[in-house]
UniProtKB/TrEMBL annotation:
Keywords: Membrane, Transmembrane, Transmembrane helix. It comes from Aquilegia coerulea (Rocky mountain columbine). It comes from the Eukaryota. This is Methyltransferase type 11 domain-containing protein. The keyword Membrane applies. InterPro entries: Prob_Methyltransferase.
Length: 467
């Protein structure tokens, strides 16, 4: 494969060759040293009756990654150098071929990295031979290498230099530092499973694994270099003027991980108890709108949307609904020219898919995650049938303060039908009161579908202006 490169002048070719060939020598020398320094005692053969596992030293991954970076730097130099030399073009193709081969090798070895069960002396010797970091760097920088086996995860979390190495980008940094959640350390085997995939292939159908990791605090999850699966018979979604209130086409949902295998199962009375979800049991029945009929203040804790919007006439434009939902609240608000993002997980059913197919914005996020909005930006936050008596007070505090962070001054927090036992209600009311918000609407009523020992609480609260 020949690279067609246009150069301004060949006058710099001598100086370029002075730079090029030392880099090539360093690259070849690195390959030689890696091959020389790795001896068989550091490859652990674990024999069983069914298969044979080979575990490579985790420090080897760092060396291969370093070699990949060197080759990338060399290719960058080759592509930016101004010369008409056919020799250089041919050499560029050669280096590119080496880089591709090293990438393939790294991918083939990605599942073999780990800490082999060898003695401490051997471990120390291996680190001395394969690593050149000082003690503090090893302790802080190689935590993931001692815990995770996935080579793809090590590659993902390593810093990614800008194309112009050593120069800061518009963000003011010289490299991108991909992140994963701290709690991923406690789920090493699951995250290794999640990162087992074929690069540039189809991703495993494992969103359930991903969601369990997110719920366990492994958030953000590492990105992957594979293509997401899609329904085989995906068709054009309904136009926005009909998608809000009509059931979406079932072929546009990938049903493999759900108990229900079609949309009718989500709404049929015959499937109650066998749908795979219980929160927001009527969510998928899009004929049920809600928040539109005024209720008896002594019997119901539900406010209407129009009642709330009148409190801030014309001021509510954008906001968040943090609820188990298929987007009905957002759909009604859209009809009133208010844009709402609907934050929910897929709690046994395709909540996010249905929100999107209705032409609304789904936000796939857990209660333990910091909201992806900047400070003082939203006009309204609404939450219903989510913050209930299950939540601990400390978690509730962090959630409320994060909501406070993204609400703008004079923005409103709509707590919609929070319920808990009578004996706990005052504890929760105290947490909402501590925010110092102005009470625009406030209602506590009995929850009548139980044995009389629970209460509903609803409120619309205005965030104060703080200096």
């Amino acid at each position: 494969m020949q690279k067609q490169v246009t150069f301004k002048s060949s006058s710099c070719l001598p100086s370029f060759r002075k730079l090029l060939f030392p880099l090539l020598f360093i690259t070849i020398l690195t390959v030689f040293l890696i091959g020389r320094d790795i001896s068989f005692p550091y490859i652990d053969f674990v024999t069983s009756t069914s298969h044979e596992n080979i575990v490579l030293p985790s420090a080897l991954h760092s060396q291969i990654s370093h070699l990949q970076n060197q080759l990338g730097d060399l290719l960058e130099q080759l592509h930016t150098e101004n010369t008409d030399s056919k020799l250089v073009v041919k050499f560029t193709d050669l280096v590119l071929g080496i880089a591709v081969s090293v990438d393939r090798l790294a991918d083939k070895l990605s599942h073999l990295y780990g800490d082999p069960p060898i003695s401490q002396n051997c471990t120390n010797k291996m680190e001395e031979e394969l690593g050149d970091s000082d003690d503090s760097e090893v302790e802080e920088g190689s935590m993931g290498e001692r815990i995770f086996n996935s080579g793809k995860l090590h590659n993902y979390t390593s810093p990614k230099p800008n194309r112009q190495v050593g120069k800061k980008n518009f963000l003011g940094v010289e490299a991108v530092y991909p992140s994963i959640g701290l709690s991923c350390i406690g789920a090493a085997s699951s995250i290794d499973q999640y990162m087992t995939y074929k690069a540039y292939g189809i991703c495993p159908d494992d969103w359930v694994v991903a969601q369990k990791l997110i719920l366990g605090g492994c958030d953000p999850l590492p990105r992957r270099r594979c293509f997401s699966r899609s329904p085989q018979q995906y068709s054009k979604p309904l136009p926005i003027n009909s998608s809000l209130w009509n059931p979406p086409t079932g072929t546009n949902i990938l049903w493999t991980q759900y108990k229900c295998k079609d949309y009718s199962c989500l709404v049929s009375n015959q499937t109650i108890g066998r749908r795979g979800f219980f929160k927001c049991s009527d969510c998928f029945n899009l004929s049920k709108r809600g928040w539109e009929v005024p209720s008896n203040e002594t019997e119901s804790a539900e406010f209407t949307i129009d009642e709330v919007l009148r409190l801030k006439s014309g001021d509510i434009r954008i906001g968040l609904d943090f609820s188990p939902t298929t987007g009905t609240f957002a759909a009604i608000m859209r009809e009133r020219n208010v844009t709402i993002a609907s934050a929910t997980l897929n709690l046994g059913a395709p909540f996010n898919e249905v929100i999107a197919l209705r032409g609304l914005l789904p936000l796939y996020i857990s209660v333990g995650s910091r909201l992806p909005f900047f400070d003082n930006t939203l006009d309204i936050i609404h939450s219903t049938l989510f913050l209930d008596g299950w939540i601990g007070l400390e978690v509730l505090q962090y959630v409320l303060f994060d909501w406070d962070r993204v609400l703008r001054p004079k923005g409103i927090l709509w707590v919609d039908r929070f319920f808990c036992s009578k004996k706990d209600m005052q504890l929760y009311l105290d947490e909402f009161t501590k925010l110092g918000y102005r009470k625009l609407l406030w209602r506590v009523v009995p929850k009548t579908d139980k044995q009389g020992n629970e209460l509903f609480f609803s409120a619309v609260l205005e965030k104060p202006q703080r200096s």
